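Supplementary Methods S3. Input chains for the assembly prediction are listed below.
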Amino acid sequence: MATQRTRVDPSVYDNPLWPERLPDARALRLVYGFDADEMVVLFDDVLHTNPAFVYVDTPDYEYAWLKVDGVTGDVIGIMVYPLVAHAVEFHPHWRAAALPNPSPEVAERIVRDIKALYDRYGIPDDLDKPGR
Amino acid sequence: MAIIWEAQDQRGRTVTFQDDAWSPILARHSDFSISTDDIREVIENAAEIVRDRTFRRREIHYRLYQSGPLWLRVVVNYRPHQAHGWVGDVTPAHVIRKRKEIEELLWQLSEHE
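Predicted structure tokens for the full assembly:
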């Protein structure tokens, strides 16, 4: 599992950069863990350097997270926790991600929804940082 | 279902990490450089423990990951145990940038420890 550990610059994570065009549905990889009730959607199969999750600052409860590359600051995936126990209350159609063999369009829609959440709520303290 | 390690958390409870918890973490987070020992370190030497706001029997353990600035966040699901009172099983683990400050704090490392 290990990738090379390099020095971490925290500012990289504070200005996540979404791709200009969201990945095509068929490029996305959705993985749901039933015991954890955690879902991730990965945009590629590349082993990124020092990736970390940054939460979208939704009111009260942070359930949507961006996976950010620790060198480029690119958004390389998303995570939802908890999915069925909480997030589907606000996004009922996300429940399909917990079913066996969800279609690629399920992942695509969740990514679009999280992008919309990010556009609306941002990440913690992002207005204090210079934008991109 | 093999036990990778068994440890004691900062509140004195036994926590186990089993291979059927590690495999899903690997499946979802294959490019993270965390090891099973990193997760154990968080459990044994957490800086903070907060309550999971959805699952009342889950607690989230936090510790700076390799001296920072990132944090390692380990979720533990506790269940009653006849002999030990409560025992925990590691469920998800993540490397994160920050945590939300309104989480209910259950335990915190004092400055003098």
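Chain B touches chain A through 30 residues (CB under 8 Å). Helices of chain B lie at 19-28, 36-44.
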